[in-house]
Write a structure and sequence with these properties.
The structure holds 2 protein chains of 2 kinds. By secondary structure, chain A is an all-alpha fold. Chain A is built from 21 helices and 2 strands. In chain A, helix 8 packs antiparallel against helix 10 and helix 20 packs antiparallel against helix 21. Chain A is flat, with a radius of gyration of 36 Å. By secondary structure, chain B is of the alpha/beta class. Chain B has 11 helices and 10 strands. The chains are: A mainly alpha, B alpha/beta.
Chain lengths: 541, 288
């Protein structure tokens, strides 16, 4: 308080505060700042994959799911029009045909034996087999009564189905006229309601007569078999015994067929589940047939599977072996030559590989298979140029780069210190590779193989060109020869038939269902591969 | 590789005028001090090259049997290279070559053509800077060396596992989980597991390349204690960057600088009374 006399210091000039600018940038694109826009762009790119995946799934489901309804309608018609009924009889007839073929096979072997081992001329051999021929002729005639029924009734059933189809078409036509308001034209369309019961009467009516005929066939077969002559070639007797055994089995199915025919009811509903199991486990893929179309996945799935197995069987040793060599043994110069060469294979368009398969590999493999020195190889020799083996070999070529590159990465990721530690403990190079490096990278290698499998399963062009495209489950009774038979694949059938089908028709839907199955297989393989790779990262620690 | 020219510029090597060294650590007296030891390894006029680059210059060194010898020196001085020459681990690196001189173990030159490096490495084991157990169980890690030699006798293997783990002072810590992954152990335990793995093949010599550089002080102390135990049975050569460790563990110390052996003497001598001024400068912490 005593400082009153002291003059106060002159007032300081007020300091202008620095502008305190903390507002956001004003430049905006669609209401976002530049950074946010860029972020949104990147985020959009990242989510693109998810969106596309979802769209594909939805699209496949939408197009494919109607298949089951249509398939059910198709199978229902198969029943109501009496096709199923006729097929029971046909099965009986075909059983007999197969047995007749067996008999011909025996004769073929007998002739070969007689001409080769006993040095008889063909004429002499035929003379020796005269008794057998007479027997075979009588045997093949026994089925005649059944055959007559089947061919008559086939016409009846087809006629009913035809009538129904025409009627359905007429209904559609009429609905279209009505929709456009052309009532007069709509009335002009004739629609005859089909009385299935009446139409089926000639079919069902023959049941007692047919059963009688079938029993006659059974008796005839037994009579004929009782008079079977002795074969001039003793070594084939065992086949003859087998033939008789097969006949007993065949005849044992007669009562069952009879029961089926007698209890057959054209109105029995088709369970919804049958259409799903019929698709997934159906053994027939039969389209555009005058009789009945079947959409069974099994032949195509088996084809794809076999081709993939062959491809992996060849590609795994090649790819993994090459990866181990390049990673562990090869010098720098070898690496510079081999690595780009293998990776270049994946750049070859698959259609070119397909050409190569048709023009070169198919021929070469067949020639190789007919080479005497290689006759011990299972399945050799074979006569089909385009078959599962040809396609599998080319697919292996496609899988090798994938497997090689990923397996090499996995081997590369094994820490150098593992290798050094192993050497320092007195391990040789081979021991180090087999006991340390390969086990440590095993999950990486397995996922490489899985991704290779994914590549192979999805490949289309090569299998379409080289697999032979026969839609049938290969005959596995002969062991490995199944692998040199022509097959058709899931990818191949889509590529081949998609161009020819009517949009929205059952066949079109069935192809989409095949695509859907393919899609899920690929998804599963990739999921497994990712899962394994994740585990592998942890195990290396 | 250290840029050698910058190192010598930064650290003057003419330290003859420096004051006598005063150190923060002592070199303990040892029972083996003064005892005469046999020579096990003899290195004579040894020149070693990485491609065209010479890494070791005219090394002459005699290493004692059943003793611990420490190699010290700044990074890039060649001490690890020399260590790896003793079991020919450098064979794994492309372009390395011995141009002159020899390494003899028990009077056998290990670089001649008829020596099998695999057999050599069974006799000369190695422990690395970073612990590197295999991604296998503890048990399998220890018997790896025997497995590759074809040993299948279960009883024998069990015995070796226990003996080796006891030898590496790890048995009590892991005996209840022998079949769990070796990667689940702590860093120090992993390093001792690597030592156990090495002694399981009963080598004569154990090379240790900075075995404690990645370990904490407690784990380091355990490994050092272990080295004392091991030297009763094994000849140990240890490369270390820690002067204290060299002083604590070793009987003899070799100091390297720029690929040359500068001084080699009893550890006590090296640390208390080095005869070479470069050694003096290094151990007193004035460079390196």
């Amino acid at each position: 308080m005593s400082s009153a006399s002291i003059t106060p210091p002159p007032p300081k000039p007020p300091v202008q505060p620095k502008p305190f600018v903390i507002h956001k940038e004003r430049t905006r694109f669609f209401g976002l700042t530049l950074d946010e826009t860029i972020r949104a762009f990147f985020g959009g790119n990242a989510f693109m994959a998810v969106v596309v995946l979802a769209l594909i799934t939805i699209f496949l489901f939408r197009e494919g799911s109607a298949f089951f309804g249509q398939n059910r309608a198709s199978i229902t018609l198969y029943r109501t029009a009496g096709l199923e009924y006729v097929d029971y009889m046909r099965a009986q007839q075909e059983g007999h045909t197969a047995l007749t073929r067996y008999l011909f096979d025996i004769r073929l072997r007998a002739v070969r034996h007689l001409t080769e081992n006993e040095a008889l001329s063909v004429a002499e051999a035929n003379a020796k087999l005269a008794a057998f021929d007479e027997f075979a002729g009588r045997y093949s005639d026994t089925i005649e009564p059944v055959r007559g029924f089947v061919s008559d009734l086939t016409d009846v059933a087809v006629a009913i189905k035809e009538k129904y189809t025409i009627n359905e078409d007429a209904k559609t036509e009429r609905a279209q006229f009505l929709a456009t308001g052309m009532t007069a034209e709509a009335d002009a369309v004739k629609i005859a309601e089909i009385d299935f019961k009446a139409e089926l009467a000639p079919l069902v009516g023959v049941t007692p007569m047919y059963v009688e005929a079938a029993n006659g066939v059974a008796t005839a077969i037994n009579d004929v078999l009782a008079t079977a002559p002795a074969l001039p070639v003793p070594s084939l007797e065992s086949r003859m015994t087998r033939f008789k055994e097969l006949n007993r089995e065949y005849l044992a199915t007669f009562p069952e067929t009879q029961r089926k025919l007698e209890t057959w009811d054209y109105l029995k509903p088709v369970p919804a589940l049958d259409t799903v199991t019929g698709f997934l486990f159906g053994k027939q893929w039969l389209t555009a047939s005058f009789w009945q179309d079947w959409y069974g996945l099994v032949p195509l799935f088996v084809g794809s599977l076999m081709v993939s197995i062959i491809a992996l069987f060849l590609a795994v040793p090649l790819g993994v072996g090459a990866a181990i060599y390049i990673n562990q043994f090869a010098g720098l110069r070898e690496q510079r030559i081999i690595k780009p060469a293998i990776e270049f294979i994946s750049a070859i368009p698959s259609v070119v590989l397909g050409f190569f398969g048709i023009a070169v590999l198919g021929q070469a493999l067949r020639a190789l298979s007919q080479w005497e020195a290689l006759s011990w190889v299972p399945g050799f020799p074979f006569s089909e140029r385009l078959n599962a083996l040809t396609a599998g070999c080319l697919l292996a070529l496609i899988a090798v780069p994938t497997i090689f590159t990923l397996a090499e990465d996995a081997l590369n990721n094994v820490p150098r210190s593992f290798k050094e530690a192993s050497f320092a403990l007195g391990a040789s190079r081979m021991q180090t590779i087999l006991r340390i490096i390969v086990p440590a990278s095993l999950s990486g290698i397995v996922s490489a193989v899985l991704l290779g499998l994914g590549r192979v399963i999805g490949e289309t062009m090569v299998v379409l060109l080289c697999a032979g495209n026969r839609i049938a489950i290969p005959d596995f009774t002969q062991g490995f020869t199944a692998f040199v038979q022509p097959v058709h694949t899931m990818t191949g059938i889509i590529a081949q038939e998609m161009g020819e089908v009517v949009r929205g028709e059952i066949h079109y839907r069935a192809l989409f269902m095949v695509g859907l199955v393919l899609f899920f297989i690929a998804l599963l393989i990739n999921f497994l591969a990712q899962k394994i790779v994740r585990k592998y990262r942890i195990s290396i620690g | 590789m250290v840029n050698v020219s910058s190192l010598s510029n930064a650290a003057p090597m003419d330290t003859s005028s420096a004051t006598p060294v005063s150190r923060a650590f002592k070199v303990p007296a040892r029972a083996t001090d003064g005892e005469k030891a046999d020579t096990l390894i003899e290195i004579e006029n040894f020149d070693f090259y990485y491609g065209a680059k010479q890494a070791l210059f005219d090394i002459n060194l005699k290493l004692d049997d059943k003793r611990v010898t420490a190699f010290i020196g700044p990074s890039g001085c060649g001490k690890s290279t020399l260590l790896r020459c003793l079991n020919r681990m450098n064979d794994l690196i492309d372009g390395t070559s011995v141009k002159r001189g020899s390494v003899k173990i028990r009077n056998i030159d290990i670089n001649t053509r008829d020596v099998d490096p695999i057999e050599l490495r069974k006799r000369v084991g190695m422990v690395f800077q970073k612990s590197n157990p295999f991604p296998k169980s503890i048990y399998e890690n220890v018997i790896y060396g025997l497995r590759i030699q074809g040993e299948t006798n279960k009883a024998k293997l069990d015995e070796v596992v226990e003996k080796s783990l006891r030898g590496a002072a790890l048995w009590d810590e892991v005996k209840d989980r022998l079949h769990e992954s070796g990667l689940g152990l702590s860093g120090g335990q992993q390093q001792r597991l690597c030592i156990a793995r090495t002694i399981a093949v009963s080598p004569e010599i154990i090379l240790m390349d900075e075995p404690c550089s990645a370990l904490d002080p407690i784990a380091t102390a355990k490994v050092e204690e272990l080295i004392h135990e091991l030297k009763k049975e094994f000849t140990i050569i240890i490369v270390t960057h820690s002067m204290q460790q060299a002083a604590r563990c070793s009987d003899k110390t070799a100091f390297f600088y720029m690929g040359k052996l500068i001084e080699y003497a009893d550890t006590r001598m090296i640390f208390m009374n080095p005869s070479n001024p470069q050694t003096e400068a290094y151990v007193s912490g004035r460079f390196g």
